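During the no-cost extension, the postdoctoral fellow (Dr. R.K.) reprocessed legacy sequence entries with the updated structure-token encoder. One reprocessed record is reproduced below for audit purposes.
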Amino acid sequence: MSRLPLRPAASAIVIHRGDGRDGSLRLLWVRRSEANPFLGGFHSFPGGRHAAEDGPLGADEASDQQAMIRCAARETFEEMGLLLGFSGAMPPLEEQKRVRREVLAGSIEFWPQVSAWGLSFDPGAYAWCGRWITPHFSRARFNTNFYLVDLPDMPAVDVWPGELESGGWIDPREALALWRRDEIVLAMPTLYTIQVLAEGGHDLPARLHAIPEANGVASRHVVVRPSITMVPLRSETIAPATHTNAVVVGDGDVVIIDPGSADPEELEAFDVIVREATGPRGRVIAVLLTHRHVDHVAGAEAVSARYVAPIWAHVEAGGHARVDRALRDGETIELRGAHPRRLRVLAMPGHSRDHLVFHEETSRTAIAGDLVSGLGTVVIDPPEGNLRDYLASLERLRGLDLQTIIPGHGAPHRGVDRLLRGLIEHRSMREGRILHALEGGALTEEALRERAYADTPKADPRLAARTLAAHLEKLAEEGRIVVAADGVRLAR
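Re-encoded structure tokens follow.
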């Protein structure tokens, strides 16, 4: 399991019940900026990390709850300009905005300013609704307490661009319909909460607590889209990754992509998701492989046998896994069900010669294998890997107008163009460092690696050497350098 620390956080589920005659519950939600490194582009609830001014943690459960409620109240003010749970003579709006700007800039703290305003805070306005823990495979992990705030009206919200992009009130039923039509992306705490709210406003704290994952149990899977679920399986992969993302697509006819573990315990947990997806009348029609590396194919034959399903992959994957059908670039796989899915096979070499990406066209989601990693830089290891091919594949992926990428390792990504552009720019930056290091004359590959990777002293030297080899191969093919037995130099 991941050793990343759990960061304490709090979030507010803010609702307004209306007159109740038409089930007119309203929910306050926000859309996170796509530039946000955590859940960028996702819709969620206002909230964030605990700050020291919210109160100390660790003494006992009661005091911890008080501190986290204060965290939720502070974050709701910072993100939406709302003072919820406060009483007294409210300061003028311009004064609130001034304080908000200074709090966000870090020049003052929120709670001392509340005292200066003479406001009283009632933590009883925040009803505890559970605690969610970020799954172990995420780059940042949070221990988030959720609180229900039930308002008699719907105050206007004021979202300032930055960490958030927008915010406002919505009927939970409408929000759920948007998600089912693939128009928005929701993290699981948000999705499951909205599903409960869409069923009505009765007994809300108890019903929200009844969600299994709302009781401090980290989920083993991520519902990325309707009928698209990512299930990280512990695998023999390269650090910092510990798991490979298997993906289940469909809710009737189903395909399984990249089962990277044959461990019986992992596959038993995986089976729960597969059985839920197939339902009583569905079936697994195939096991798909993005490429032949062991951390993506290790469980392929065990999964194939369990569900009596063939294995489909690139023809060159056949030397590393059984391939019952060779997939070709451009062909499609149709999946019938409540949410019909259409996967287009895209040949995208670079990480390996046999690498495929599966593009689910209706939701504009790419199951990208090791073309993209959510945990760092993808290793390009010649002769199997080729950097020119890899960059061309990234550019092709950029041209698909995707909404979501599911990488081979790490969390799903919503800010797709920004992500892909960043990966391309990173390779360009590294190439620039290599060429700059050679301006002073020829260098051995070891000396060149030390100079070109001086900005990442903690990088694994073996992986850096292989990635350097990929850059040198590309630059030599372009006629920009000469690689000789005595070293590497710039071409004349």
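The first strand starts at residue 6 and ends at 16. The mean pLDDT is 92. The remaining legacy entries will be reprocessed before the final report is submitted.
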